[in-house]
Design goal:
Structural class: mainly alpha
Shape: globular
Radius of gyration: 17 Å
Number of strands: 5
Number of helices: 8
Largest sheet: 3 strands, antiparallel
Length: 187
């Protein structure tokens, strides 16, 4: 069985981190060429081949669905940048903590943020249980005894199953938008 993508990304990050930016790009381009891949892959976040291209409105480097979601919910690039780090098509949650009245509410918010992290990265709000558990552990709100029960309480905000993965349907995207605005304004 292959390693999970977050683990692979962590290993690649560790290898590339000491290099200068231009050397990192050369290494990635060379590796892709050796694999017979396009040497300047399309960025899943931007849909472009340039790393820093943006549309003519100056909006964030996001896919078309995410751009519509941001516009519909009055979310600015500044809101996103306060909670997420986007680099080379990889999106990382950088929120300092997840406020909430307890582990249950914090866990629910981790589900929403995991969906948005994936949305920003792939233009689809699909994510796995392991991503949420990892985020909950990182934020100090993982309650293994009640995690399943908390997930069950998300109702219309999160669809899917542990085995096949989750997605944020329209109500989940709306709730996540409100959370993004709330958390970025709290910073």
């Amino acid at each position: 069985m292959s390693k999970p993508l977050p683990e692979i990304v962590g290993e690649i990050y560790a290898l590339l981190e000491p290099l200068e930016s231009e050397d990192r790009k050369k290494v990635v381009s060379s590796a892709l060429t050796l694999m017979g891949e396009q040497s300047t892959p399309k960025n899943p976040v931007t849909g472009s081949s340039g790393l820093n291209e943006s549309d003519d409105t100056g909006e964030s480097e996001c896919g078309p669905k995410v751009k519509r979601w941001m516009k519909r919910n009055n979310i600015s690039l500044e809101h996103i940048e306060e909670l997420f780090h986007i680099e080379n098509g990889v999106v990382e949650i950088i929120a300092g903590d997840i406020p909430g009245s307890g582990k249950k509410q914090q866990t629910e918010r981790c589900y929403l943020l995991s969906g948005i992290r994936s949305y920003l990265e792939t233009d689809e709000p699909k994510f796995t249980e392991s991503e949420v558990v990892e985020l909950c552990k990182h934020m100090g709100c993982h309650d293994s005894a009640n995690h399943y029960k908390t997930r069950g309480g998300l109702g219309k905000y999160v669809a899917g199953k542990k085995q096949t993965g989750f997605t944020l349907p329209a109500p989940g995207l709306k709730a996540a938008a409100a959370l993004v605005v709330q958390l970025s304004n709290a910073s």
